[in-house]
Specification:
- With about 725 residues, this protein is an alpha+beta fold.
- Helix content is about 45%, strand content about 15%.
- It binds adenosine-5'-diphosphate and magnesium ion (MG).
- Adenosine-5'-diphosphate binds near residues 305 and 355.
C-alpha cells in the first residue's frame, strides 16, 4: 500500500487526532529536578571527580587550554560510570559536518577483558579523539575518498550529554571534526577558532581601558530565537513536496491566510502546547535553557527561544533544539518544518541570532548603561561592530545564503538582503555626537503613563523597535535577524566573531597608537574620541533606522554604496573572494583552502537542493496532478456532452471546459519547459551550474507552479490529490 494517503483520507486522519489524557500535575517531573539531568555538568564533575582532577579540568576549560592524557583517563572513567548508571550502553563523538546537520557513530562500552569475557571501558583517548572515517561527508575537495582519514576531537567547552531515544541511551561527546591534514570539515572548529580570535583582540581593548583585571577571556554570547511550522503528519505524508523538500512546491493561496493577524501571540492550540511542553522537558534534561514559547505571525507558525549562553554551547544547543523539535513532533501526530519558506504568500521562518560579547566574569560588553555617552568602553565595542558590519557586509550576507533562505530575504516580511544596522534614536544620537568629537548627553526614554490609576508607570525605552532591519541593536546586544530558520548558528556566528575580531584589532591598534605608552586618563579619553570619530565618519553609511522593506531604502542603499547581494548565487562567491580569505586566514579561523571548500560545498548544495525540488515538482505533476486534471476535464466534458445530447444550451459550461483545457495546456507547456531546463547540463564548475539553476530552472519552476496553482482553484476538491494550504495551515 502506498504511504501516501489521498487528500480526503489524510484530512479524515488529521481531524481525528485526540489529545491523550495528560499526566496529573503531581506526576509531572519538576523543572528544577530535570534541568540538566542528562548533562555531565560542572556540578556532576565536582561530585564525581577527585578534587585535584576536578580543579585541573576546570582550569583547562576556563582558560581554554589543552587537556593532558592522564587527566582525560580519569574524566572518561567517571563519565562512563555516570552514563551507565543512567542506562547508557554506547558512546559517540557527536559532530557537525558541513551537511548542516549533526553526525554520530555509536560504539558500545564493551571491551575484551583478556580472559574470554568483557568489561565496560571508556579510556581517555576514546574520550578525547576518534577516527570515524566518515568519508562521505562533503569536504569541498579537501579530502579525496582514498585518503579519507577524518578525526574527531573532544571540545571540553561544550558539556557531554546523554541522548535518549526510546529505551536507548547514548553518551554524546561534542567534538570537532577535521581531516588528517588538520583542515576543518565541520562548523564547530572554525567557531572555536573565531572565539579565540575575538577574545585576543577584545582583551587588548580591555587592557587599554584598564578593565581587564580578573578577566581570562572574552566570549561571545548567543541566544537564537527559532521559528518553525507544525503541520499534521497525515497531511504531511500526502505532500511529496513537504516530505522531500520540507516546503510546498504547489498550493493556491487560501482566502484566509494571515491577514487578520489572529494567530500571532494567540492562545496556543492544545495539541501544540502539549508538544511544546514535551520538547521543553527534553531540552531541560539536556541543559538547554528554553524560556519563551508563542504563536508566530503565520497560521501554524510558532517560536521557541532559549536564554542566551556562550556561543559555543549555544550553537551546540541550537542543533539539539532543532533535532528535538523534529523528534518530538511525530509523538503528537505533527511534523515540524524548519524550512525558511514552507508556504508561498505566508510568512517565512527565521532564526534571530541575538549576539553580544562578554567577559568570562560575566560583564556584557555591549551593555550601554544609563549614562551611555560617558561609557567610552561600550562605545568602543559598539563602534567596532558597526565598522565590522560595514566593512564585511558582503561576507555576513554570504554567511546566511542558501537556496531556502533565498525565498525569505528581500521579500516583504523578512529582512532585506542589504545588510544595514539599526541603532535606535539614543545610540544614533550619540554616534552623531561622537562624530563631532564630543559626547554630552544620553537621550532618555522617561516614563510611560498609561492613564489608568491602577496601572504602573512603565520605564520607556529611548527608542522604538525596528522589525525590518537585518542587524539591530536591541538594548544590550545585536540581533542578526537575517539568519534562516533551518541554518546552523555556528557559521554566521563564526563570521560575525571574526569580522568583529578584525575590527577590534584595528581599534586597539589605533587606540594604542593615539594614546602612547602609559597614557594619562585624559590621553585615553582623547584617543578614544579621535579614533571613534573617525570610525563613525567612515562607517555611518551602514546605519539605517528607517523602513528596510521600502523601495526608497533600496535606492538609498545603492547611493550609499552598500552591497546588495540579492540571492545565493550573488552572495556565495564572496566566501572565496580574496578579501574574505585574507580576513579569515589572518585570524586563523579558516585557511584559503578551507574557505574555498566551503564555497564549493554551499554552491553544490544550492544546485542540488533546487534540482531536487524541480524533479519533485515534475514528478508530482506527472503522477498526481495530470491524472487528477484529466479526470476533472472528463467530468466537465461528459457533462457538456450529456447536456448537449439532451438538447439543452450550455455555452457557459462549454466556456468552463474550454478555460479548463486551456489552463491544463499551460501546465503541460510549463512542465516541458521545466524538463528542458533540467535536462540541459551546464558545462563548467559549480558556479556555472548555480547560474544555470537561477536563470533557467527556477523561472521554469515558478511558471509550472503558477499553472498548477491556477488549476487547483478550478478543480473539484474531491479530485485534487494534495492537501490544500487551508488543510495544512488550519487543521491544528
Ligand atoms: P526580545 O525583546 O527581542 O524578545 P529578549 O530579551 O526576550 O528580547 O531576548 C531575546 C533573545 O535574546 C533571548 O534568547 C535572550 O536570551 C537573548 N539575549 C538576551 N541578552 C543577550 C546577550 N547579552 N547576548 C546574547 N543573547 C542575548
Ligand atoms: Mg527578538
Amino acid at each position: 500500500m502506498s504511504l501516501i494517503k489521498s487528500r480526503m483520507e489524510a484530512i479524515a486522519a488529521a481531524t481525528s487526532w485526540r489529545e491523550s489524557p495528560s499526566k496529573p500535575a503531581e506526576q509531572m517531573e519538576r523543572l528544577e529536578e530535570i534541568f540538566g539531568a542528562d548533562v555531565f555538568s560542572e556540578r556532576v564533575m565536582r561530585e564525581r571527580l577527585p578534587k585535584d582532577i576536578f580543579q585541573r579540568l576546570m582550569r583547562t576549560i576556563k582558560k581554554a587550554e589543552r587537556l593532558d592524557a592522564e587527566l582525560a583517563d580519569v574524566v572518561a572513567s567517571a563519565m562512563k560510570d555516570w552514563a551507565i548508571e543512567r542506562g547508557a550502553t554506547h558512546y559517540t563523538h557527536w559532530f557537525q559536518p558541513l551537511t548542516g546537520l549533526t553526525a554520530e557513530k555509536h560504539d558500545s562500552f564493551i571491551s575484551p577483558d583478556g580472559a574470554g569475557g568483557f568489561i565496560m571501558q571508556f579510556s581517555g583517548s576514546a574520550l578525547t579523539q576518534g577516527e570515524p572515517d566518515a568519508s562521505s561527508f562533503p569536504s569541498g575537495g579537501i579530502r579525496a575518498t582514498f585518503e579519507a582519514r577524518g578525526y574527531t576531537a573532544w571540545d571540553p567547552m561544550s558539556p557531554v550529554f546523554l541522548n535518549r531515544s526510546g529505551s536507548n541511551v547514548t553518551l554524546c561527546i561534542p567534538t570537532a571534526f577535521v581531516s588528517w591534514t588538520g583542515e576543518a570539515l565541520d562548523t564547530k572548529t572554525p567557531l572555536l577558532r573565531s572565539v579565540d580570535a575575538l577574545s585576543e583582540q577584545a582583551m587588548r581593548v580591555l587592557r587599554f581601558f584598564g578593565t581587564h583585571q580578573g578577566v581570562n577571556r572574552v566570549l561571545t554570547t548567543v541566544g537564537p530565537e527559532q521559528e518553525y511550522f507544525l503541520v499534521d503528519r497525515n497531511l504531511y505524508f500526502s505532500r511529496p513536496d513537504l516530505l522531500t523538500c520540507d516546503r510546498t512546491l504547489f498550493g493556491a493561496r487560501p482566502p484566509k491566510g494571515q491577514q487578520l493577524e489572529d494567530h500571532y501571540f494567540g492562545s496556543i492550540p492544545a495539541r501544540v502546547l502539549a508538544f511544546m511542553a514535551e520538547v521543553e522537558r527534553e531540552l531541560y534534561r539536556l541543559g538547554v535553557p528554553v524560556k519563551t514559547r508563542h504563536n508566530e505571525v503565520a497560521p501554524a507558525q510558532y517560536e521557541i527561544a532559549p536564554i542566551f549562553e556562550n556561543s559555543i554551547v549555544a550553537c551546540d544547543h541550537q542543533m539539539l533544539l532543532m533535532e528535538t523539535l523534529k523528534r518530538v513532533a511525530p509523538r503528537y501526530g505533527l511534523q515540524c518544518i524548519l524550512h525558511e519558506k514552507p508556504f508561498a504568500g505566508i510568512n517565512g521562518s527565521g532564526k534571530h541570532n541575538n549576539w553580544s560579547m562578554s567577559t568570562d566574569t560575566g560583564v556584557n560588553l555591549l551593555d550601554p548603561r544609563d549614562e551611555t555617552h560617558t561609557n567610552m568602553q561600550f562605545l568602543t565595542f559598539c563602534c567596532a561592530v558597526v565598522r565590522a558590519v560595514d566593512l564585511h557586509a558582503d561576507l555576513l550576507r554570504a554567511a546566511i545564503a542558501g537556496a531556502s533562505n533565498d525565498h525569505r530575504l528581500g521579500a516583504n516580511e523578512a529582512p532585506p538582503a542589504i545588510i544595514s544596522i539599526f541603532l535606535g534614536d539614543m545610540l544614533t544620537d550619540i554616534m552623531e555626537q561622537l562624530e563631532k568629537g564630543q559626547t554630552k548627553r544620553t537621550i532618555k526614554g522617561g516614563k510611560l503613563d498609561l492613564g489608568a490609576r491602577t496601572l504602573p508607570l512603565l520605564p520607556r525605552d529611548s527608542g522604538d523597535r525596528n522589525r525590518t532591519s537585518p542587524f539591530a541593536f536591541t538594548g544590550n546586544k545585536f540581533e542578526f535577524r537575517a539568519v534562516g530558520s533551518s541554518q546552523t548558528s555556528a557559521w554566521p556566528n563564526t563570521v560575525l566573531n571574526t569580522i568583529v575580531a578584525e575590527s577590534l584589532d584595528y581599534v586597539a591598534t589605533q587606540l594604542e597608537k593615539a594614546a602612547g605608552k602609559n597614557p594619562s586618563p585624559q590621553k585615553v579619553q582623547q584617543a578614544v574620541r579621535s579614533v571613534l570619530a573617525r570610525i563613525v565618519k567612515q562607517h555611518k553609511r551602514v546605519i539605517f533606522n528607517g523602513d528596510g522593506y521600502s523601495e526608497a531604502w533600496h535606492k538609498e542603499a545603492d547611493r550609499r554604496g552598500l552591497p546588495h547581494l540579492r540571492d545565493s548565487v550573488d552572495a556565495l562567491p564572496v566566501i572565496r573572494s580574496r578579501k574574505a580569505c585574507d580576513l579569515m586566514s589572518r585570524y586563523k579561523v579558516l585557511t584559503k583552502v578551507e574557505m574555498q571548500s566551503r564555497c564549493t560545498i554551499f554552491l553544490e548544495k544550492y544546485v542540488k537542493q533546487v534540482a531536487i525540488e524541480a524533479e519533485t515538482m515534475a514528478s508530482m505533476v506527472r503522477t498526481q496532478i495530470i491524472p487528477a486534471v484529466l479526470q476533472h476535464q472528463r467530468r466537465l466534458a461528459e457533462a457538456v456532452a450529456a447536456t448537449q445530447a439532451a438538447d439543452v444550451g450550455c455555452s457557459e459550461q462549454r466556456d468552463v471546459l474550454e478555460g479548463y483545457v486551456e489552463a491544463a495546456g499551460r501546465m503541460h507547456e510549463a512542465l516541458s519547459g521545466l524538463e528542458k531546463a533540467l535536462h540541459h547540463h551546464a558545462a563548467g564548475d559549480e558556479m556555472d551550474h548555480a547560474k544555470h539553476v537561477r536563470s533557467h530552472v527556477k523561472p521554469a519552476m515558478a511558471k509550472l507552479r503558477d499553472a498548477v496553482d491556477t488549476l487547483e482553484t478550478m478543480t473539484s476538491e474531491d479530485l485534487w490529490p494534495l492537501p490544500s494550504y487551508r488543510d495544512l495551515l488550519f487543521i491544528k
